[in-house]
Amino acid sequence: MAGAAALRRGERVLDVACGTGALARAAAARVGEGAVTGLDANPSMLEVARERRPGITWTPGDAATLPFPDASFDAVLSQAALMFFPDKPACLREMRRVAKPGGRIAVHVFGHSAGYALVAEILGEVAGPEEEAIMRSPFVLADVAGLEDLFTEAGMPSARVETHSGTARFASLEDLVETEIEGWLLAGRVDTTRFLEAARRRMTGFETPEGVRIPLEHHVVIATR
Questions:
Q1: What DSSP assignment string belongs to 131-174?
Q2: How far is it, in rounded angstroms, from Cα 188 to Cα 204?
Q3: How do residues 20-29 score in pLDDT, each as one tens digit?
C-alpha cells in the first residue's frame, strides 16, 4: 500500500481506519521527516497503535467526517476498511477532500476468494444466516466494476484498480477457527466443533502438508485528487 501510493520523503500522509497502525508505520518509514496521522474510531486500537509507535499522530475520528481541513495531506490511505463503512461514498469523498490537489488516494479492499466463500457457506449451515453474512462482509467490494462505480460516485472517475493475488495461511483448520471465528466478530456465536466437522469434509481442497492455504484476491484502488 505504501508503495502503491508512491510515498516520498517529507510528505504528509493520513491513514484512515488505521487500526493498530501497521500501514501508518510503513508510511512513516517511507516519508522520513514528513508526518503521518492515523485515524480510527476505536480507542482500544489507537491505544495499541500509540504503544507501538509514539512518533505518529494517532487521532480518534469517523471516516465519514474527517476532522481535518481541506487539502491537508499529500496522500490518503485506507487498508481493509472501506467495505465496513456504512456510507462508503461519503467516506471516499472525505478522503478526496482532505487530499491536496494532485495528491494520491490509495484504498485496499478484499477481492474474490472461493475458500472464504466456502467458509461462509459452512457457517451459514452450522450457525445461521447472520454468521454467514458476517463472514461475507469483508468481500462486499470484490467486484471490480462495482468498485469503480463507487469511486466515480465519490468524484474520482479516473481511479484505477490493481488486483493482486495472495494466500491466507493457517497452520491447521483449528488455527483458522481461532483466527477468523474466535478472534473476530463471530467469537462466541459459532459451535466450532460442528464447524470443524463440516470443514474437514468440505475444505480438503485447501489443506496442504504445510497447513491450510486459501487463495485471496486483493484490490488496490489508486486515485488522484
A1: HHHHHHGGGTT--HHHHHHHHHHTT-TT-EEEEEEEEEEESSHH
A2: 25
A3: 999 999 999 9
